[in-house]
Write a structure and sequence with these properties.
Elements lengths: L6 E7 L2 H7 L5 H12 L1 H12 L2 H5 L1 H11 L3 E6 L10 H20 L5 E3 L1 E2 L5 H13 L4 E4 L2 E2 L2 E2 L6 H10 L2 E4 L15 H4 L1 H15 L2 H4 L4 E4 L10 H10 L10 H4 L4 E3 L5 H11 L4 E2 L13 H6 L5 H15 L4
Helix pairs in contact: 1-6, 6-7, 7-8
Length: 332
């Protein structure tokens, strides 16, 4: 479908007002220190200036639209920077964080309503409150919410999240699974392994919890987009299938794990044309969406060119470029 707009589903927004809200709250300092330990001093020395040089792209709508125009992106699905999760916060702070993230993201997107769609935030550390704030995000006109791969002490397979999955399924809300941080901690504190190894690991672990626990069996209507191509899982799903066949303790889901990849959505940001072709093969060309991680340095400056490099059949190229996301976002 060559007439579909080009849609980037992985683009971020920085909310300075949210950071100002939490900086003096009890718990913020400890969370910041943990993040620093996990990333290591060399990574922090690079990341600070990198983000600083992109503030306009992260906050100013005109700068965002100009950058989109430069690479032929018609629509972005904008989500708050994952640094805004603040899963350390108590219920009162978490409610304020979520409401501010939802309203501020909605206000940003409202400045270019034909070009931008938004995702809000919910506090995974408080499952009951997460349902309330999902409804709040949808009331602001958001398409859904962005979530991390886990919360402190809780995996996505935790039964406490059942009401959240049920509400997301009932409303048709999108859930954008985007990790922040990795529980391998200081093992990854050099050479930016916290991101290059940590992010795809977290994606694979989170998706495996959703699959093996039966969450996707109980909630077949969930609309989940996995960032970073789903991490390591799609290209190594054969090992999961073998475990499901060989071991009774790996039979928490009704069907082979690979079958669930066709019930999920994945962005195209894998940084390797061969891996992208494999992702399209195992998930299906109707389940992969264009993604750039705009505007961070671990993204791609030209997502359409990166997609073209995979040398997909023309119909599949246009499906990933925009037709799949246009249907998912119900774009006119």
């Amino acid at each position: 479908m060559t007439t579909a707009p080009t849609v980037d589903v992985h683009a971020h927004l920085l909310l300075p007002q949210l950071q100002e809200l939490v900086v003096d709250r009890p718990g913020f300092g400890a969370a910041r220190d943990l993040d620093a330990r996990r990333n290591g001093p060399e990574a922090l020395a690079v990341s600070g200036p990198m983000v600083g040089s992109r503030i306009a792209l992260l906050t100013d709508v005109d700068a965002r639209i100009a950058a989109m125009d430069a690479v032929g992106v018609d629509v972005q699905l904008v989500s708050p920077s994952p640094s805004h999760y603040h899963y350390w916060a108590d219920e009162n702070v978490a409610r304020t964080v979520g409401e501010l993230a939802n309203t501020a993201t909605a206000a940003h997107c409202a400045k270019a309503p034909t070009r931008l769609r938004g995702l809000g935030l919910v506090p995974l550390q408080h499952p009951k409150l997460a349902v309330e704030l999902l409804d709040h995000a949808l009331a602001q006109g958001m398409c859904g919410v962005q979530i991390s791969s886990h919360a402190p002490g809780r995996e996505l397979s935790d039964p406490a999240y059942a009401p959240l999955w049920a509400r997301a399924e009932e409303t048709g809300a999108l859930l954008f699974l985007h990790p922040f941080g990795c529980t391998l901690d200081e093992r990854l504190d050099r050479w930016y392994l916290s991101n290059t190894v940590g992010q795809p690991t977290e994606n694979a672990v989170a998706l495996s919890h959703l699959i093996f626990s039966g969450v996707l069996d109980r909630h077949p209507g969930l609309r989940i987009i996995a960032a970073h191509g789903g991490g390591y899982l799609p290209t190594h799903i054969g090992r999961s299938d073998h475990a499901w066949r060989a071991r009774p303790d790996a039979r928490g889901c009704a069907d082979e794990p690979s079958s669930y990849l066709k019930r999920l959505y994945f962005d195209s940001l894998v940084h390797d044309p061969a891996v992208l072709r494999e992702l399209v093969r195992v998930a299906g060309p109707d389940r992969v969406l264009l993604g750039s991680d705009f505007p961070f340095d671990m993204g791609t400056d030209d997502p359409v060119a990166a997609l073209r490099a995979a040398d997909l059949p023309e119909a599949d190229f246009h499906a990933v470029r925009g037709a799949n996301a246009s249907a998912l976002l119900r774009l006119a």
